[in-house]
Backbone:
């Protein structure tokens, strides 16, 4: 019995130490685990011109301007914005008001020149009819900060924004 | 017919959707079959061993005429007992 | 022989559960497939590719669930030396690895058309790949020693240490910017469920089918391990005369 108790304490203590060590390590690694910078991250910690990194956020409504293969749009996180220019094929889910992650570098004018563009979608799934009726009833708030009071359960996710 | 084609086409994403279900079926099905076959093989091996070992122990116990009451828990008929009382069944394949 | 007292009792329980878990698996799989492939509607953004969710998400849930079960069994084995706990952990590993492989491949098949990439090295996808390596490492360690008990101990230790990866996978989408979206189903917390009811039917049916699949294959696996262990002792008894 005592041996079993000792083993129990020993294993539990080891796991506790391991958990603490992992938490500390993840905290220290911090930013290196970020897959992309938001426009606000970029404003806080500027990246040198020409250095390669990823920029992510929402494609600002009405900002997409296609001219042949080249497309210009603005990435926003509702606080800050960065203009982006990209030449190439866009993913099927690339739309205004939807999430996007671009990889490239800043040029001299402060425009982000993207080498590739990935679409980032949110965690909401619903049939088109439900989405349409939400829009009709005014519960739809793309990019807003949370569901309005009394929104139906299905709308809760639909109106949530990226953080 | 058109409905069937539309269903199989999956809105133009047929390759992605059907391969997802295909991969799932192959991986889960393959593992299931391999676990099942392994279970059958190991349980058959065990049964063969138990039969062989049980038979041999019974045989040995008879030769020793109860002098060596080594336990053979797999066979009720091989319980150690006084000489001569051990039932001389022929189920071990040897003439009694 | 008292060593087998527990496994023998366990076998009785396992054999009583097996027909039920097979029945639940077949029924919920049928419901999940019919709803997932035919009856449920396409998504307003992702169209028909949303059907990949009905295998991808339950497989990912199971990948985490099976690892946690394996870690718990390993803990019980290390502390109380319960032989069935070791067998349960050993039987779980290949099932968990299979679910992880499904999660990764269906994720790639979903990511290509929707995101525009088969694979990205964001925190969610990378930690999921590490989970696969943990499963493979467990299986390799468990079979690496001539002394079976040493293999069990080493593998159980790896399973416990590797468990720190589970909360990292779960919360990676909340802690860091990732290309992968946050969880759609949150039983606890304020966010709730961000999936329409019509799509929840196939999702939960497939989740139940996968859980029943795990129970079934794990019980069969333990039964197999018990038979193999008994055969080993019998062979040893034979050799020792």
Residues:
């Amino acid at each position: 019995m005592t041996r079993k108790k000792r083993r129990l304490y020993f294993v539990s203590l080891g796991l506790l130490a391991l958990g603490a060590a992992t938490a500390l390590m993840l905290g220290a690694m911090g930013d290196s685990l970020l897959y992309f910078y938001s426009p606000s991250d970029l404003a806080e910690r500027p990246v040198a011109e020409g250095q390669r990194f990823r920029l992510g956020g929402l494609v600002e409504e009405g900002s997409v301007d296609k001219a042949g293969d080249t497309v210009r749009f603005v990435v926003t996180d509702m606080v800050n914005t960065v203009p982006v220019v990209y030449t190439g094929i866009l993913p099927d889910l690339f739309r205004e008001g939807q999430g996007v992650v671009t990889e490239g570098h800043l040029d001299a004018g402060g425009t982000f020149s993207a080498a590739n563009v990935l679409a980032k979608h949110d965690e909401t799934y619903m049939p088109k009819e439900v989405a349409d009726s939400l829009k009709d009833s005014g519960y739809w708030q793309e990019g807003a900060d949370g569901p309005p009071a009394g929104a139906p359960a299905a709308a809760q996710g639909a109106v949530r924004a990226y953080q | 017919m058109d409905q069937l084609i539309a269903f199989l086409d999956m809105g133009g994403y047929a390759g992605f959707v059907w391969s997802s279900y295909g991969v799932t079926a192959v991986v889960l099905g393959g593992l299931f079959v391999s676990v099942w076959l392994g279970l059958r093989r190991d349980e058959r091996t065990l049964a063969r061993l138990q039969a062989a070992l049980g038979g041999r122990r019974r045989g040995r116990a008879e030769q020793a005429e109860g002098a060596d009451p080594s336990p053979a828990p797999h066979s009720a008929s091989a319980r150690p007992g006084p000489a001569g009382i051990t039932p001389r069944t022929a189920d071990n394949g040897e003439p009694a | 022989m008292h060593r087998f007292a527990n496994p023998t009792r366990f076998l009785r329980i396992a054999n009583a559960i097996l027909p039920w878990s097979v029945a639940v698996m077949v029924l919920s799989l049928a419901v999940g497939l019919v709803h997932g492939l035919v009856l449920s509607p396409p998504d307003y953004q992702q169209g028909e590719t949303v059907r990949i969710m009905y295998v991808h998400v339950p497989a990912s849930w199971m990948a985490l669930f099976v690892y946690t079960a394996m870690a718990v069994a390993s803990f019980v084995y290390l502390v109380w030396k319960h032989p069935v706990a070791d067998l349960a952990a050993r039987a779980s590993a290949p099932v968990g690895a299979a679910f992880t492989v499904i999660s990764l491949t269906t994720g790639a098949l979903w990511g290509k058309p929707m995101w525009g990439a088969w694979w990205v090295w964001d925190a969610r996808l990378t930690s999921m790949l590490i989970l696969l390596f943990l499963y493979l490492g467990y299986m390799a360690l468990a079979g690496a020693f001539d002394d079976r008990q040493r293999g069990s101990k080493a593998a159980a230790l790896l399973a416990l240490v590797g468990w720190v990866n589970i909360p990292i996978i779960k919360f990676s989408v909340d802690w860091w910017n990732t290309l992968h979206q946050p969880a759609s189903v949150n039983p606890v917390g304020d966010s709730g469920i961000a999936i329409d009811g019509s799509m929840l039917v196939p999702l939960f049916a497939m989740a139940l089918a996968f859980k029943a699949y795990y129970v079934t294959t794990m019980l069969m696996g333990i039964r197999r391990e018990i038979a193999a262990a008994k055969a080993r002792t019998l062979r040893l008894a034979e050799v020792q005369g």
User: Anything to note?
Assistant: Residues 2-33 of chain A form one domain. DSSP finds four helices and six strands in chain A. The beta strands of chain A are 53-59, 65-67, 70-76, 81-87, 99-106, 112-120.
